[in-house]
Amino acid sequence: MTGKLFYLLGEGLQSLWRARIPALGSMLTIALTLIIFGSAYLVLSNFDRATRRLQSQYRIDVFYNPLLNNQEAFEIYKRLKDIEGVASTEFISKERAATIFKQEFGEDVVDVLGTNPLPAGAVVLVARGYRTARRINRIADEILSYANTTDVSYRGELVRILERYLQFALYGGLIIGLATLLGAFFLVSNTIKLSIYAKRDSVDTLALLGASRQFIRIPFLVEGSIQGLLGAMLALTAILGILDVINYILEQFVLYRIIRPPYLTSGMLLFGLALGLVGSYRSIRKFIRPGELGAI
Amino acid sequence: MTEVATNLPVDEPIIRLDDVTLVYDRGPGVFDINMSIDPGDLTFLIGPSGAGKSTILKLLYMALLPGSGEVWINGFLTHRTRMRQVPFLRRTLGLIFQDFRLLPDRNTYDNVALPLHILGLPRRDVRERVYSVLEDVGLGDRSQHFPKELSGGEQQRVAIARAIVKNPAIILADEPTGNLDASTAYEVLELLTYLAEEHGSTVLVATHDYNLMARKNGRLIEIQEGRLVG
Question: Using 50, 70 and 90 to split pLDDT, how confident is the model at A294?
Answer without folding.
Answer: low
